[in-house]
UniProtKB/TrEMBL annotation:
Any one cellular-component term (Gene Ontology): cytosol
Keyword Lipoprotein in record: no
Main location: cytoplasm
Species the sequence originates in: Sagittarius serpentarius (Secretary bird)
Recorded name of the encoding gene: Pmvk
Phylogenetic classification of the source organism: Eukaryota, Metazoa, Chordata, Craniata, Vertebrata
Protein name: Phosphomevalonate kinase
Keywords on record: ATP-binding, Cholesterol biosynthesis, Cholesterol metabolism, Cytoplasm, Kinase, Lipid biosynthesis, Lipid metabolism, Nucleotide-binding, Steroid biosynthesis, Steroid metabolism, Sterol biosynthesis, Sterol metabolism, Transferase
Subcellular location: Cytoplasm, Cytosol
Pathway participation: Isoprenoid biosynthesis; isopentenyl diphosphate biosynthesis via mevalonate pathway; isopentenyl diphosphate from (R)-mevalonate: step 2/3
GO annotation terms (biological process): cholesterol biosynthetic process; isopentenyl diphosphate biosynthetic process, mevalonate pathway
InterPro entries hit by this protein: P-loop_NTPase, Pmev_kin_anim
Amino acid sequence: PAQVVSDTRRLSDVEWFRDVYGDVVQTVRVAATEETRKRRNWVFIAGVDDAESECGLDQGVAFDWVITNDGDERSLDEQLETLLRSLRRRL
């Protein structure tokens, strides 16, 4: 079986899963440029967007996968399909 944890926010969260589940853990980061985020009506709010819960994983985590979501649907689909194929092989 596979389990998906959709919202880890701190390095200690990732470390816990890696400690408990070891090498089966696959970390996935979904990223978009600040420009793309602004086009999607995101506005930086001090004290919110710079809090540990929002940027605690920006450093110190070597993600297994980084999915770029900058608006290119074809590219996004290809990245997700590659990820899904890899995960299916692990089942």
